């Protein structure tokens, strides 16, 4: 399906959706010609010999009939209340492939004897592409709902449900060797459109309670595909960190009548000490209680619940401001000879939840790194891994001073 060409004054992004060979959705977001005008269309058919992903599982010898594909499950920890998805099929996902066999790269033109390539995007080029993850931790299976729960081993304590969410991959560029920080603002603007589009669509899926768009960058973070990409998870539950923030925000609302996230931003702007970047619509700051060796938050100056709620002006500004922030982060650490060290990081968009507590949320981006020096990682110690009791190796003021120092 191809949306109509953009109207004058609207963002020059064309959205084209199709279906992959195994039934997964793929969406192209184009900002270049001849595609953005509709003069040409990306390849929409998927020639791979993939079976439908919901095909019943083959029976074991002697079994009477195939078993229905049930998808991943999740179990509730009775000690914390946390839901833990269990997706054993992810053990077989692609791990650090060669550049010429990366499944996120565009398809290679067919030559004699090469009719099949297991890449996920059928066209030989693309601007931004989003598709359902082939190895998802969360997946909605037709006919299976969150109500189809059970007890592990028949014990009431151990509640289990289908992990009925959705996981999508966002390819930022067709260039395998690029990175987000190296993209042009116009391409980042397209990515923002994709984030907003997918957030809105995923929030409408049945049973979804939270949508989280994020990027993992660097082998130190555990990235298994170095191609520039991010992910979007649609959770069928509220994640533990968000639940903790909702609890704090509800208590703050009860005491003051105000939004906690808005008050935090206002306090950081008043203090100014940890503010590292300001624009017309956005403020970047190191939080006063930062826990990571490098951590910075980026928030809109206006109260906004989620990415779809951003105005065109805020999206335009974000495309420029976010790039500046990432480029500073890539200058945070240097080798002894002065060479900048590309920062491994996790960047995640915290958005308002879908249901109860939505009005307590406020959009903001958190970027953090496990790198504590040019060649040293922060490993979580016993109290951090075992008790979630963080101990910082630096101070927020030092982090902020360095990010202010590396501004060009």
From TrEMBL:
Active site per UniProt: 229
GO biological process: galactose catabolic process via UDP-galactose, Leloir pathway
Top-rank EC class of the record's enzyme: transferase
The UniProt record lists the keyword Oxidoreductase: no
One Gene Ontology term, aspect cellular component: cytoplasm
Gene3D superfamilies the UniProt entry points to: HIT-like (3.30.428.10)
GO terms assigned for molecular function: UDP-glucose:hexose-1-phosphate uridylyltransferase activity; zinc ion binding
Entry's EC annotation: 2.7.7.12
Alphabetized Pfam families for the sequence: GalP_UDP_tr_C, GalP_UDP_transf
Record has Metal-binding as a keyword: yes
Residues annotated as domain Galactose-1-phosphate uridyl transferase C-terminal: 254-406
Extent of Basic and acidic residues compositional bias: 42-51
Sequence segments annotated as region (Disordered): 1-20, 37-75
Residues noted as binding Zn(2+) in the record, renumbered to the chain: 102, 105, 176, 227
Top-level taxon of the source organism: Bacteria
Domain Galactose-1-phosphate uridyl transferase N-terminal: 72-238
Matches recorded under InterPro entries: GalP_UDPtransf1 (IPR001937), GalP_UDPtransf1_His-AS (IPR019779), GalP_Utransf_C (IPR005850), GalP_Utransf_N (IPR005849), HIT-like_sf (IPR036265)
The entry's keywords: Carbohydrate metabolism, Galactose metabolism, Metal-binding, Nucleotidyltransferase, Transferase, Zinc
Pathway: Carbohydrate metabolism; galactose metabolism
Reaction(s) this enzyme catalyzes, per UniProt: alpha-D-galactose 1-phosphate + UDP-alpha-D-glucose = alpha-D-glucose 1-phosphate + UDP-alpha-D-galactose
Cofactor(s) required, per the database record: Zn(2+)
Textual note on the cofactor: Binds 1 zinc ion per subunit.
Homology family: Belongs to the galactose-1-phosphate uridylyltransferase type 1 family.
Annotated protein name in UniProt: Galactose-1-phosphate uridylyltransferase
Species this protein is from: Cellulomonas cellasea
Gene expressing this chain: galT
């Amino acid at each position: 399906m191809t949306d109509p060409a953009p109207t004058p004054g609207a963002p020059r992004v064309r959205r084209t959706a199709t279906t992959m060979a195994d039934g997964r959705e793929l969406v192209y977001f184009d900002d270049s010609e001849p595609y953005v005008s509709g003069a040409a269309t990306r390849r929409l058919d998927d020639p791979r010999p993939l079976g439908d992903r919901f095909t019943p599982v083959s029976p074991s010898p002697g079994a009477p009939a195939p078993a229905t594909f049930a998808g991943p499950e999740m179990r509730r920890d009775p000690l914390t209340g946390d839901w833990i998805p269990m997706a054993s099929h992810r053990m077989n996902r692609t791990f650090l492939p060669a550049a010429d066999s990366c499944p996120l790269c565009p398809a290679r033109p067919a030559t004699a004897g090469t009719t099949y390539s297991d890449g996920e995007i059928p066209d030989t080029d693309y601007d931004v592409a989003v598709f359902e993850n082939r190895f998802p931790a969360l997946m909605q299976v037709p006919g299976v709902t969150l109500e189809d729960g059970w007890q592990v081993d028949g014990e009431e304590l151990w509640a289990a449900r289908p992990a009925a969410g959705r996981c999508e991959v966002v390819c930022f560029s067709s260039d395998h060797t690029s990175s987000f920080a190296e993209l042009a603002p116009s391409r980042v603007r397209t990515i923002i459109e994709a984030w907003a589009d997918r957030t809105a669509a995923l929030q409408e899926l049945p049973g979804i309670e939270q949508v989280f768009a994020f990027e993992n960058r660097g082998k130190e973070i555990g990235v298994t595909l170095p191609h520039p990409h991010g992910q979007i998870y649609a959770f069928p539950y509220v994640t533990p960190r968000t639940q903790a923030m909702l609890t704090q925000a509800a208590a703050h609302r009860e005491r003051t009548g105000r939004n906690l996230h808005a008050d935090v931003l206002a306090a950081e702007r008043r203090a100014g000490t940890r503010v590292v970047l300001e624009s017309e619509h956005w403020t970047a700051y190191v939080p006063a209680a930062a826990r990571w060796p490098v951590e910075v938050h980026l928030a809109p100056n206006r109260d906004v619940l989620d990415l779809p709620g951003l105005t065109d002006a805020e999206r335009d500004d974000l495309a420029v401001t976010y790039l500046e922030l990432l480029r500073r982060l890539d200058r945070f650490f240097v080798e002894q000879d002065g060479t900048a060290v590309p920062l491994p990081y996790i960047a995640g968009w915290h958005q308002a939840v879908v249901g109860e507590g939505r009005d307590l949320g406020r959009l903001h981006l958190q970027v953090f790194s496990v790198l504590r020096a040019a060649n040293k990682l922060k490993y979580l110690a016993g109290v951090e891994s075992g008790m979630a009791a963080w101990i910082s190796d630096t101070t927020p003021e030092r982090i902020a001073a360095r990010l202010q120092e590396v501004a060009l």
